[in-house]
Structures are given as structure tokens and as C-alpha cells.
Amino acid sequence: MATSVQLPLDLIVDILIRLPVRSLARFRCASRSFRSLIDGQDFVNRYVNHSIETNSNLGLSVSVENSKWKRRYYSLSFDQYTFDNCLEIDLPLMKNCKFGFIIGSCNGLLALENSCRNIMLLLNPLTKRHRVLPTFYRDLSRCVPSLEGFGFDVGSGDFKLVKILAFGKPMNYTEVAVFSLRVNSWRRIQDFPYFWVTGRCSVFVNGALHWAAALNQDADRNDIIIAFDLKSEEFYQVPLPPIVGIEGYYIVVEALGGCLCLLCKFDDDDDDRPWDLWVMKEYGVNDSWTNLATLLNVGGGNVKPLVYSRSEDKVLLHAVRRDLCWYDLERHRVRSIVEIDDKVRRCDMCTVCVNTLVSPNAHAGN
Fold first, then answer.
1. Are 350 and 340 in contact (CB under 8 A)?
2. CA nearest neighbour of 95 among 136, 64, 59, 126
């Protein structure tokens, strides 16, 4: 007579976090206990962290501007060196929008904005479930300089979206608003105590949103890194690498492999000058900044690091003039151009999104 074996919960979780998300979807339907486990925030956090650490269960969400100046959004499955299942994110609220963009991604959700219709929404690009956020208290169609960010507050178990608006030329007044998915409302908080010259969207690392900003109102370029802690809802500065901060450097804040990183180059109107890629190996520790590479021959223009290869000897880059390409960190050159669907070539916005079953409605208030 056959006997059933009861596996320890820790072992079950250790097995489940290694499965692709489509397998999780099948297990979720198998029993109530599996559904409760897979939907739980502890499991989601472990699944997301394991996916980032192993570069697995990852996807790319991209925005493409067509010949009619209208945007379309696509999601691609990512399996180490190949991209497949290029699917259009067919949302009527975002379709053919000239001024739509991707604010950011976190734990499998995308934050999107359509300023033409004064709409922001959260979307799971894998399941296509989405939630339209309550109307922002100001008209988004007005051309007001702004910074945005999207992340998850582990302490309260809440997704938060931050919007910083600037008024006046030169900038002399700011407003900061935070949206809480759990409360389902916007609220004003302290004003932004800094300035910024360029940039818009943040990167989410170590429980905080990060932007490049400026200390002085009359600055002609960003020269500091500013973070916003989603738990305390306070701003603070992050130390720069030792060589950066010298007058004349242009900086861009990014994230790579769960670490804060910084792209910098000397701004002398030479568009082909290479970017230096710095990575903060231990968050908040100035001495942990490491010059990972000088990105040669990536074609000039802006560059965005996306993910490491599994062997960590290459970095996937979104280069404006080369689409997606693998950069060899040892040989200091572009290793290969990624073959992708023609529909998403020359995409102008690209972000990594962990494939999960997280629903934008699971944490929402009424």
C-alpha cells in the first residue's frame, strides 16, 4: 500500500522558487494550500530575489515609437541569450499614446503613465492584469518637469509610486506626492530639497528610489545621487564614486544585478566618448564602488545596463544606436547584437521585469 510523504515547507518553497512562472500558475491551481503559499508576500519576495540572483524568470518590457509618433508596448521573455514570445501589451488606455512612458518595474509589476489622458496604471505584463490608479491631483498633460519612481515598501507590504513636480524657471518650487496601493490614494509629503537638470525615472534598489540630481539651483548638470526611502519617506544622499563629482562629468543612475550603478563620462560635446560603468557592491558603503568597465564601441548616445549573463562576464546593454547587445566585460567590446523581433527594434524605453503572478489588485485598498 502506497504511503504519502509530507515534504517540509522549506523544501517545497526551495523547489517552487526555481520553477518558471508558468509552472507556478499550474501549481497554484492544484490546491488551496499551494495558492495561499504562492500568493503570499514572503514567497513572492523570495521568488523575485532568486530570479534576480540567478538571472532567471526575467522579461523585458519595451516601448516603441512608430512612424506616426504613437507608442506601443511589448513584453519579451528572456532566457539567457535569447528573446522570444514578443507580445504586444494591448491596453486601450495606453495604445497609440504619444506621451506615454514606463515609470519603472518592481516585483513583476510595471508602472505606466499616459499623460494625454491623465492616467497612471499598474500592470503585470505576463498575466495582463492591470489597475488604473486614482486620478492624480494635477493635470499630467501640462508640461511640468517631473521625477517619478515605483517600488515596494517591505515594512508595510505596500507598493508605492512617487511623483515630484517642479515649478518655475529656474526651479523654485516643488511638490512631492506618494501613492500607496494599500490605501489607494495620493498624498502630499515634504518638498524635494534638491534640484535636477535632466532625467525623469528612478531605479529601485535596497528599498529606496534613486535619481541623479543637483545641489545648486543654477547647476548645468546633475552632480549628486538622491534616494527616497519608501519606508521612512525621507530623502538622503548616496555617496558618489571617488572620481565622479568632478566638474564636467555627466552622470546617469541605473541598477544592475540588484546593485546601484552609475554611468558617467566627461561632458565635452563628444558624443562618442565612452561611458564608465560603476557598481556599488555594498549599498551605502562608499569604498564598495567598483569601476566595472569602460564601455567602448557601443555607438555613442545613451546606454542602459540591464542584466548580467549567468557567468557574469557579460552585461546586456540597451544602446540607443545598437538596440540590445551583449558587452564582454573581459574583452571590453560588444560581443554580439541580440536578435529580437522587428517590431521592437529601435525601442526607446526598455526595463527588466521579473515574471511573477503578482496581481496589481492583491495589495490594493478600495
1. no
2. 64
Q: H or E element: which one contains 226?
A: strand 224-229
pLDDT in tens, 327-348: 899 888 887 777 676 667 677 7
Residue count of the chain, please give it.
Answer: 366
Grid cell digits, residue 43: 514567497
Q: Residue 38 phi/psi, 5° resolution?
A: -70, -30
The answer to whether 339 touches 45, Cβ cutoff 8 Å, is no
Q: Is 346 left (phi over 0), alpha (psi -120 to 50) or beta?
A: left
The alpha carbon dihedral of 253, 256, 259, 265 has a sign of negative
Q: What is the pLDDT of residue 29?
A: 87
What does the pLDDT look like over 54-95, one tens digit per residue?
778 888 888 777 666 677 778 887 765 566 677 777 776 666
| 170 cis-preceded (ω within 30 degrees of 0) | yes
pTM, entire model: 0.89
- Mapping DSSP onto H, E and C, the string for 258-327 reads CEEEEEEEECCCCCCCCEEEEEECCCCCHHHEEEEEEECCCCCCCEEEEEECCCCCEEEEEECCCEEEEE
What gap in Å lies between CA 264 and CA 292, rounded to an integer? Answer: 12
pLDDT of res. 2: 54
Report the chain's C-alpha Rg in angstroms. 21
